[in-house]
Amino acid sequence: MGVISTDSPDSPDSAAAATARPAMARVPLARTLVFGAVALLLFLLVVLPFGWVLNNSFHDDLTGAWTLSNYARIFQSVDLLEPLFNSLLLAVATAVIAVGIGVPLAWLVSRTDLPFRRTIRVLTLTAFVTPSFIGATGWILLAAPNSGWLNALWRSLAGAEAGPLLNIYSMTGAIFICGIYTVPYSFTMVSSALDEMAVELEDAAATLGSGTLRTMLSITIPLVTPAVIASFILSFIQGLTLFGVPAFLLTPTGIPVVTTKLAEFYQLFPPEIYMAAAYCMPLLLVTAMLFWMRRRILGRKQFVTISGKSRAGRRIALGAARWPAFGAALLLPLVSVFLPYAALLLVSLTRAWGQGLSWENLSLHWYWWALFGNSETHTAIVNSLVFSTLAATLCVMLGTVVAYIVERRMVFGASLFGAVATVPIIIPGIVMSVGFFAAYTRAPLNLYGTPLLLVAAFAATFLPIAYAHGGSILKGIGPELERAARSLGAGEGRTFLSITIPLMGGGLLSGWFLVFIPIIRELSVAVFLITPKTNVMTTLIYNAKDGGNYEAVCAMSVLLLLITLALVAAAGPLTRLTTVRRTSRKSGRKTAPAEGVLPT
Description:
With about 600 residues, this protein is mostly helical. It has helices at about 10-55, 70-75, 80-110, 115-130, 130-145, 150-160, 170-180, 185-195, 200-205, 210-240, 245-250, 260-265, 275-300, 320-350, 365-375, 375-405, 415-420, 430-440, 450-460, 465-475, 480-485, 490-520, 535-545, 550-585. α10 (about 210-240) runs antiparallel to α13 (about 275-300). Mean pLDDT is about 85; it is low at about 1-25, about 305-310 and about 585-600.
């Protein structure tokens, strides 16, 4: 019996081994290069901007010397403390409204026989994709104390000498706008928790004689508590860090908040950039404290259910309260979608809205002007689409790779990558804008006025969304096929591209839309970074509003809304189509038995 020596230079096994050795030798280098590139991107997008904000906060604007005077000035000046208190008031009120309306609305839609539940859900999500500053513009047309249509109607009923019924230019008006456009955050998070909750425990409680109220208090509410707390924190942060709504509604009346005060520092001559950096720190401290509190509250309490397949829970019959509950549920879409959208559309279709509605005054002039007659508007539309596409693509690519490194534990200390990718969630958008301005508007890069600066800032701001989304998809994909591919000689890169990415499929596309939509409507990140050549739709609307040309502002706002809503409408079918095609390709393969390990 002959035995082939593995050491023979002529043997096939020896040749294969000789071929494999260089490939194996290249793996550590390739891995090092990939990890190095990811680490470099995270450093440039997250660590460096935040580091510059922190560094600048300890410098004096006049001398450039190290100092603590900026922080001393914050706590010694009434003019700087007042915006902090106003921001906290706005944030608390926004969170209370968002949770107070969003949680009951989510319960009505998810767990009761409320009529037209699907319609209410769609209309609520429409408010979710509506930029709050555009909603504020619509309500300026409706509730401005002198010219608002609702106040004009009130005067026609109560008498010409009657005072205004509503005044949108007030803290109450800002709280109202911030609240109604933040409700969808609470609604989405809580309704998702209710929809995904296994209902066996509720059914068991009902079988044992527990009433609806007792079941809610002892079963349902504890199970959705994490979602409620998370939605309160997210709503609080939204109210604390919004820039557009306070700039539109509070600045004209002289009520300052932190975000508008930061803008003032940049508008001074010379600008107080270092003071602005120090003034960012209270926002960072508050948001970081909230996430720490959430961790402390929920860290020792795990609300989970242990069961098999869940099924759709029985709807709670509202009885005679069905239609009154539907009327109450319709109030949010009425004030956040129907009324402001109608006001924006009507004004955009008039040559001069002060002349009232008449056939002679109706025109498509401002849409033609926005699309073809004004080069600045045309440039802003193109910039919005191009910058958002590039930023969303970069964000999803980086977030997915980081999630893969963390979930598959590709390197020692992989969790550090995930921690850095998550940091922007506690950095308000306007603080991120300040950080990028500080880091990249100086030598040697000096990226001010370039598209790269905006693309990078957008990608960094929404990186936590892409990372979390990628991680959630990977958790549902077992590593068995990846291991099989590697055992057959495929490298890590080839395995990731040919196995993992196809399995992620439609999830990556939905993640891309999930990032693209908030980017295209983002204002606070872009506000300090744009130039006339890099204007986007949101900043152009913000700048045009100060000129008082509401017809042009409304036309641009409607165009932005149409683009956003069209993308939302396309996201679902495209994601489903991608998933169906991937499933069809898999079903046609001869290696069907391997599909048993794949998620559906």
